[in-house]
Design a protein that fits this description.
The chain is an alpha/beta fold. Helices cover 33% and strands 16% of the residues. The strands form two sheets. It has a six-stranded parallel sheet with strand order 3-2-1-4-5-6, sandwiched between helices. A two-stranded parallel sheet has the order 7-8. The radius of gyration is 16 Å and the shape is globular. The chain starts with a strand and ends in a 12-residue tail after the last helix. The model has no long low-confidence stretch (mean pLDDT 98).
């Protein structure tokens, strides 16, 4: 049974934790505020654990990064970069700035020539980051059901083995996976979050996901 460490106690951390438990994994969520997870722990069962950021990073054979984008590096420092060395890190974060959206378009603190994941990969070179889960709302992260069939999750990262591990997880979680290449491709994948949110922020329409159609 694979062990997953999740850095992040918010809705994404909890949703992915529940997905992993549903699919037979053991999970530890890392947080600085364990009291936030009391309700989750009470319902998530025996395979659900709570620890500090460093406990969760050390515990996970695979680690999920699901904290606010502007504190992602800080959270990894708290987790201890050495605890991520050689591990697959599923990066679900988005670089959303603390500024109001403009006509429904979120504002980022990154630009199109350097994504948040590239910054993290540079600062923590021993971790194998794979961008995933960032371009869909949490309600659809685990086994989403759409009349149009399986949606597509776009992933990117420098380590092929890490991307294989993430693809395996995405298949279990009911997704088609499109590998867009190395870390630089996160420059294109992170802004999909902006696109995904526009119908929500302008028309309160949040029930969609992307699918890549091919011949
Ligand atoms: N919400 C969605 O549907 C959705 C969908 C796709 C991607 N995302 C992305 O997923 C990430 C998580 O989103 P979310 O909505 O679940 O939660 P969030 O509110 O963006 O983040 C909550 C987490 O951030 C941590 N945090 C805040 N300040 C911190 C600091 N100074 N140092 C370390 N950690 C800190 C919190 O730590 P504590 O546990 O200690 O409180 C908590 O674990 C974000 O990057 C978001 O853009 C969200």
């Amino acid at each position: 049974m694979k062990k997953i460490g999740i850095l992040g106690s918010g809705i994404v951390g909890q949703t992915l934790a529940n997905g992993f438990i549903k699919h037979g994994y053991k999970v530890m969520i890392g947080t600085g505020n364990p009291e936030k997870l009391a309700e989750w722990k009470a319902t998530a069962g025996d395979h659900a654990m709570i620890g500090s950021f460093s406990d969760a990073a050390a515990y996970g054979e695979i680690v999920v990064l699901a904290v606010k984008g502007n504190v992602a590096a800080e959270a990894i420092r708290k987790a201890g970069a050495f605890n991520l060395s050689g591990k697959t890190v599923i990066d679900a974060t988005n670089p959303i700035a603390d500024l109001a959206p403009e006509n429904g378009v979120l504002r980022f603190f990154t630009d199109l020539n350097e994504s948040l994941m590239e910054k993290l990969q540079k600062e923590f070179p021993e971790a194998h980051f794979v961008k995933a889960f960032n371009c869909v709302g949490n309600a659809f992260m685990v086994n989403p059901q759409f009349p149009g069939g399986k949606p597509t999750m776009f992933i990117a990262g420098n380590n092929d083995n890490a991307k294989s591990e993430v693809t395996e997880i995405l298949t279990l979680f009911g997704w088609e996976t499109e590998d867009m290449g190395k870390a630089e491709a996160a420059r294109a994948i992170e802004p999909l979050c902006m696109l995904w949110c526009i119908p929500g922020l302008t028309s309160n329409q949040w029930t969609h996901a992307f699918k890549l159609l091919k011949l």
